[in-house]
Amino acid sequence: MQVIKNEKVKKTIFFIIIAISFFAVLIYNFFTPLMSDDLLFYTLKYDGIGDVFREGYDMYMHTNGRFVLHTILRLFSLVPKNIFNIFNSFCFILLMLLIYWNAVGFKKYDSMMYIMINLFAWNFSVEFDQTVLWMSGACNYLWGTTIILGIVTYYRFFLESDRTIKHPLVQNIGLLIWGVLAGWCNENTSGGCILITLSLSVMYFVKNKRILPQTICVITGLFTGFLFMIFAPGNMVRRSYISESHSGIMKYVARFLKINGRVNQYMLLYIAVIILLLVYYIYKYKQDSYKEFIYIILFSVAGLATCYALILAPEPMPRAYFGANIFFLTAVAETVSKIRKEDEILSSLKTGAILVGTIWMYFSYMENGANLARLWREVNEREAYILEQTEKGNYDLTLPIIREEFKCKYSFLKDVDLEPTEDSFNNACYRVGYNLNSIKAVPEEEWEP
User: Fold this and answer.
1) Which of 98, 123, 288, 417 is deepest in the core (most CB within 10 A)?
2) Are 220 and 323 in contact (CB under 8 A)?
3) How far apart are CA 355 and CA 339, in angstroms?
4) Residue 342 DSSP class
5) Model confidence over 127-166: pLDDT tens digits?
6) Per-residue pLDDT tens for 6-45?
C-alpha cells in the first residue's frame, strides 16, 4: 500500500509540473503579438476551408513546398490569436512529453527528468522566440517537429512492444497518412525522420527476420510526403531569387563552414553531455556493448545529418536547425536517464543541477516575462493609435519604434519591428497588415501622437 501511495504522489506531482509548464509557455504566448508574416496571413480573406487549400496550392506552385505546415498556419489565421496561443502551448507540452517518453517510457513519472528536458528546451533550443512563440515560426518548426517526433516515438514503441493490433487496417491507414504529413513538414527534419524510421525498421528486421505492414505504411508515407515537398515547383521559383557569393565547389565549402558554426553554437552542449556521460558509463559500468546506447547514437546521428543536410540549401535561417536540436535533446534525455540510482555521486549531481537550473530559470522567466509584457503593452498602444487614426481617415502615419531597452531573448519583435527605412519588408508587413498607405517610423522618444 505504501508503494501504491508513493506512486500516486509521484503521478500527482508529475501532472502538476506539466500544468505549471503549460501555463508558463501559455503566458509567454499571450505576450507575443502578431508580427512580420503573421500580419500578412491575417490580411488574407478566406470564404471557407476551400480557400485555405487553394491558397496553399498556389504557394506550393510559386513559393515553397511546405504545404502541410503553411496550411496549419493559414487555419490559425482564421481564428483569433488567443486560440492559437492555447493550441500552441499544448503543442509545446506534447513535444516535451515526446522527448520524455523516448527517454523513460510511458508508465514512469520522473518529474526531475521532465523538468530537465524543459530547462534544456527553454534555454538551449534554437531561437525559442522564433520557433516556439512567434506564430509563423511555431507553425513551421514547433508543429512540424512535433508531428515528426510523434510518428518516430509511436513507431519506435510499436516495434518494441510487437503487440497484436485489433484494427490493423485502421492503424495502417493512419500511419500512412501520418507518414505523409511528417514527410511533408520540413526539408531537413523530415529527412532526419526518414533516417530514424529506416534505422528502426532495419534493426527490427535483423532481429525478427520479417517486415511488418506498418513498416511499409510508415516508410511509404514518409517518402511520399518528402518527395512532394522536395519537388514542389515553388522551390525552383524560390531558388531563382537567391544569390550566393560563391559558386562551384566553393559554394558547398562555404555552406559547410557555416553549418559547422551553427553546430558549434546550438549543438555543442548536447554533444558534450552525451560524450561525457557515455565515456563515464563505459568506464564506470564496464559496458562494452553498443546496444545499450543504440537509441542515443541513432538520435545523435540523425541530429548531425539534419544539420549537414542543409549543405544542399542556400543560406538557411538559424531556426532551420530547430529539428536537429530536438533530436539532440532527445539523445541527451536518453543518456541522462541511464544514470543508475546506486551511483549516488552522479545521481546527486544530476538532481542538484536540475534544482539549481530551476531556481535560475524562475528568475530568468520573471525578468524576461516583464519585458515581454512591456513590449506587448507598447504594441497594443501603437495599434490603438493606428485604429484611432484610420477611423478618422488617416492612412499615412508616423509611428513609434518599440524601445530597445525592452528587447529580450524570448521575443522576436525587435528583429522585425518598424524601421526608419520606409520601403523595408518589416514596414511593408505593418502597412499591409493595418491597411495603411505609408508608414514613417521614428524612435519612441521622438514620436508625438
Assistant:
1) 417
2) no
3) 17
4) T
5) 999 999 999 999 999 999 999 999 999 999 999 887 767 7
6) 888 889 999 999 999 999 999 999 999 999 889 988 887 7
Are the beta carbons of 131 and 144 closer than 8 angstroms?
Answer: no
- Give the dihedral sign, CA 439/440/445/449: negative
Closest CA to 70 of 51, 92, 91, 55: 55
The grid cell for 387 is: 485604429
Q: CA dihedral defined by 269, 186, 31, 411, rounded to 10 degrees?
A: 50
Buried/exposed code over 41-65 (b: 16+ C-beta within 10 A; e: otherwise): bbeeeeeeeeebeebbeebbeeebb
Question: 129 with 375: CB under 8 angstroms?
Answer: no
Q: Which three cell numbers stand for residue 77?
A: 489565421
Task: Give the pLDDT mean for 51-70.
Answer: 87
Distance between alpha carbon 242 and the CA centroid of its chain, in Å? 25
Closest CA to 145 of 92, 101, 195, 197: 92
User: Sign of the C-alpha dihedral, residues 84, 86, 87, 92?
Assistant: positive
Pairing mode, strands 396-401 and 438-443: parallel
Query: Phi and psi (nearest 5°) for 51?
Result: -65, -35
Q: What is the DSSP string of 23-43?
A: HHHHHHHHT----THHHHHHH
DSSP 98: H
d(CA 275, CA 367): 33
Q: With bands split at pLDDT 50, 70 and 90, how would you rate the model's confidence at 1?
A: very low
User: Using CA atoms, how far apart are residues 300 and 160, in angstroms rounded to an integer?
Assistant: 20
Length of the chain: 449
What torsion do the CA atoms of 433, 439, 440, 446 make, to the nearest 10 degrees? -50
CB-based contact 69:139 (threshold 8 Å): yes
Distance of alpha carbon 5 from alpha carbon 431, whole angstroms: 60
Compute the distance between CA of residue 375 and CA of residue 168 in angstroms, rounded to an integer: 51
- Best CA proximity match to 189, nearest among 242, 264, 131, 106: 131
Sequence-distant (≥ 6) Cβ neighbours of residue 194 within 8 angstroms: 183, 219, 222, 223, 226
CB 14 within 8 A of CB 111: yes
Amino acid at 431: R
Residue 122 CB partners (closer than 8 Å, separation 6+): 128, 361
Cell of 82: 488567443
Distance (Å, rounded) from C-alpha 202 to C-alpha 105?
A: 22
